[in-house]
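re: the backbone from monday

yeah here it is again, tokenized this time
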């Protein structure tokens, strides 16, 4: 089989699998849609089998496409490692780190660390995305992202993991709200209250949706907002109550009239984990990002990373 393709083809195909859209994938590699379509067509002809299913709902991978994707991502990862190792010998070479994280890590912990990282590595770009923990694990396993930060009891089998931080969810309520009289409550005793939630696309919304689905009781969402700060301001106006990370609640309680109420539920205390597929194959600049994350959390060094048993 005389297969002919280049790195642009590999990266384009990887983006098609991730975006499930040839249009969006083409935009990410900065080529036109007709050029992207022709590359995929030539790729399939070169290999001799179709790789994609195309429908009105989008693009999905055929079995051959899944196999090709796995190898393409391994090749691209090795190329990134090569670029990193040669960076001190060449000028202007850029690398990239893909990082997916849950809502708390995105809003509370990553901004400070990434500002340091980008200053230290001016030639490196960071592709940062917020995702639910289950989706992050799948992305790391498939090679769609280099590093993931997940929370809760998510299954990380097949990944190498490091303990990172602890994420505690609490209620914030207005001082005049009946729940303000309590130090702690059970979440199930609040589910009929009017809630102020982040939008459906956020990881914390997905997490709470799974909690309420397991209880077979829908959450009474009164308002959806775009940030924790907006949620706290709505709570201060007594428009409802909200469930947010304790660190966020404490910060906003110094400037807004809100009360913090703890939760008795075990799931409210969640361990944050850093997960990767294979730490030894990561470029040096990705190692450095993990080191900065751990140093910021005063956690253990990356050399202590352990695989989760298969």
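seq for it, each position gets an aa:
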């Amino acid at each position: 089989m005389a297969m002919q393709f280049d790195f642009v083809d590999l990266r384009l195909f990887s983006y098609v699998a991730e975006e499930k859209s040839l249009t969006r994938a083409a935009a990410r590699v900065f080529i036109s849609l007709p050029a992207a379509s022709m590359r995929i067509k030539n790729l399939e002809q070169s290999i001799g089998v179709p790789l994609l299913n195309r429908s009105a709902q989008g693009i999905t991978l055929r079995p051959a496409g899944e196999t090709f994707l796995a190898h393409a991502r391994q090749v691209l990862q090795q190329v990134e490692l090569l670029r990193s190792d040669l960076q001190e010998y060449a000028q202007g070479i850029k690398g990239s780190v893909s990082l997916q994280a849950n809502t708390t890590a995105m809003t509370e912990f990553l901004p400070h660390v990434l500002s340091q990282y980008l200053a230290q590595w001016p030639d490196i770009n960071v592709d940062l995305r917020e995702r639910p923990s289950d989706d992050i694990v799948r992305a790391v396993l498939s090679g769609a992202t280099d590093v993931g930060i997940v929370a809760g009891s998510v299954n990380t089998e097949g990944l190498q993991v490091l303990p990172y931080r602890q994420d505690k969810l609490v209620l914030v309520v207005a001082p005049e709200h009946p729940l303000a009289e309590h130090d702690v409550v059970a979440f199930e005793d609040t589910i009929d209250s009017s809630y102020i939630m982040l939008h459906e696309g956020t990881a914390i919304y997905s997490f709470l949706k799974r909690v309420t689905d397991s209880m077979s009781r829908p959450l009474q969402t009164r308002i959806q907002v775009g940030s924790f700060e907006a949620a706290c301001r709505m709570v201060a106006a007594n428009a409802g109550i909200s469930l947010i990370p304790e660190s966020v609640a404490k910060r906003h309680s110094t400037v807004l009239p809100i009360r913090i109420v703890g939760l008795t539920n075990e799931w409210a205390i969640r361990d944050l984990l850093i997960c990767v597929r294979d730490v030894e194959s990561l470029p040096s600049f990705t190692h450095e990002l993990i080191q900065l994350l751990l140093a910021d959390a005063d956690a253990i060094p990356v050399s202590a990373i352990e695989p989760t048993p298969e």
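The chain has a mean pLDDT of 87. The longest strand covers residues 160-173.
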